[in-house]
Amino acid sequence: MKPSSPSRIAYVLKIYPRFSETFIVTEILAREASGEELEIFSLRAPVDPRFHPELARVQAPVTYVTKPAKLSEGWVMMAEASSVIPDFGQRFAALLPSLVGMDPVDVHQGIELATLFSSRGITHAHAHFGSVAARTARIASALTGIPFSFTAHAKDIFHDEVDQPTLIGLIEQAHHVVTVSDFNLAFLSGLAPDRAPSIHRVYNGLELARFAYSTPSAPREPFRVVAVGRLVEKKGFSLLLDAAAELTGGGMGLDIRIAGGGQLQEELEQKIHHLGLSDCVTLLGPRTQQEVVELLRWADVFVAPCIVGEDGNMDGLPTVLLEAMATGVPCIASDVTGIPEVMTDAAGRRTGLLVRSGGTADLVRALRFSASDSFDREGTASAARALIERCFDAEVQSNRLRQLTAGHGRPRVVPSGPAGTSGPAGTAERRDDLPVGAS
Question: pLDDT by residue (tens digit) across 197-240?
């Protein structure tokens, strides 16, 4: 269904396309399918040659914003902006105090964005991540009067290097802010309580047709374990290796496959060798979404052993965990940020096994339990799929984003669950989700 009023939405992204940011492509596709007219503005050119096939379906034109090689190029940008944007000089003068201390590249790109927005009829700008993309969108918004919004995820909120006063300023000036979990919603609302009504939780959505459900089969021998994500500290893959060493030492047969690339590749390879796990743990490298789906169908269990990194960085709500739940593979995940919100549903049914982050004891126990006859694999997987269908449909989420952009109905938490609940489980309680005696 097409929007009721004409609009043209700019998506401002640091890098487009980015192999690890499939959730952004899914969101863009869903908004285009609903009839919205989008245009993508990337602040940096992509450096990764790998692309997901879904990119070919995106209709929005992509503009790579100029990154000036020298400061003198800024004068040319300002001259062009003056010819396109009414009252540019006055607006820029009013904005100057807030630009002090900013990276000149961000300022120049914000000015070029403003010119592009004005000349192309942009009516609203939406950025992903409350960092450079949101900062440049804010500059363009201030220079043109075109409202901006942004989605806050995880690293842009929790990392030690996040400048909280800058983040608060973005929240205060944005038309609205979207974030991907109730945990994040509470955190951001605490940072800017006066702006809490403009902060909204809208979960990342999935194209459900691409993640068909299959009833899980009985666990095999060796037990098939899959983990997917960038090879970085917050994903907790090092803990998974520790748990694997304990389980194989106790005689449990395992076949563990970890998909993803990243800075810890060599360190994890060395640890696999050191722990004597070379015969049962494989680092697969990066995989496309379709390859990930095939990997999930192979698995007996999916594991997301996320932790809080030394730098404060942590996952928001991993999209691949939602994909695993959608396809019918039972899931084990740790109690970091928004993850507990999807480990039970509003009726209290188990949708996965929740473990405490940062240690191996719960993880070992959960892996043993998930391989046992005591674990209701089919019931858990069925409840997980139902939750995903109810709360994570990309089509539904895109309509919510459109409503927020239009300013229609502005609930802080967009209802996803049954009447009377604010989300899948209606709670973000942290608890040990394994039954007593499961070990």
Answer: 999 999 999 999 999 999 999 999 999 999 999 999 999 999 99
CA nearest to 25, candidates 139, 178, 128, 133: 128
**Can you spell out the DSSP letters for 319-338?**
HHHHHHHHHT--EEEE--TT
CATH, range 9-152:
3.40.50
Instruction: Give the distance from CA 324 to its chain's centroid.
Output: 15
Q: Which CATH superfamily is domain 208-388 in?
A: Glycogen Phosphorylase B; (3.40.50.2000)
Residue type for position 435: P
Relative orientation angle of helices 88-99 and 104-120, to the nearest 10 degrees: 150
Q: Is 59 exposed, middle or buried (0-12, 13-18, 19+ CB in 10 A)?
A: exposed
Secondary structure element (H or E) that encloses residue 240, with its range: helix 237-249
Q: Identify the CA nearest to 30 among candidates 1, 52, 72, 62.
A: 1
* pLDDT tens by residue, 315-357: 989 999 999 999 999 999 999 999 999 999 888 899 999 999 9
Domain spans in the chain, listed from the N-terminal domain onward: 9-152, 208-388
Q: Which amino acid is at 343?
A: M
* Of residues 256, 220, 240, the one with CA closest to residue 371: 220
Which residues have CB under 8 Å from 362's CB, separation 6+? 355, 356, 432, 434
Q: How far apart are the first and last CA of the chain?
A: 51
Spatial strand order in the sheet of 301-304: 281-285, 254-259, 223-228, 301-304, 331-334, 353-355
Angle at CA 17, nearest 5°, toward 120 and 12? 40
Q: Is the pTM of this model over 0.70?
A: yes
Same fold, 9-152 and 208-388: yes
Please give the torsion angle defined by the CA atoms of residues 352, 129, 146 and 401, in that order, rounded to the nearest 10 degrees: -10
Report which DSSP code applies to 342.
Answer: G
Task: Please list, in sequence order, all residues whose beta carbon lies within 8 angstroms of the beta carbon of residue 293, skipping any fewer than 6 positions away.
Answer: 210, 211, 323, 327
- Residues with Cβ within 8 Å of 153's Cβ and at least 6 positions away in sequence, in order, are 128, 129, 179, 180, 184, 316
Closest CA to 13 of 41, 54, 36, 32: 41
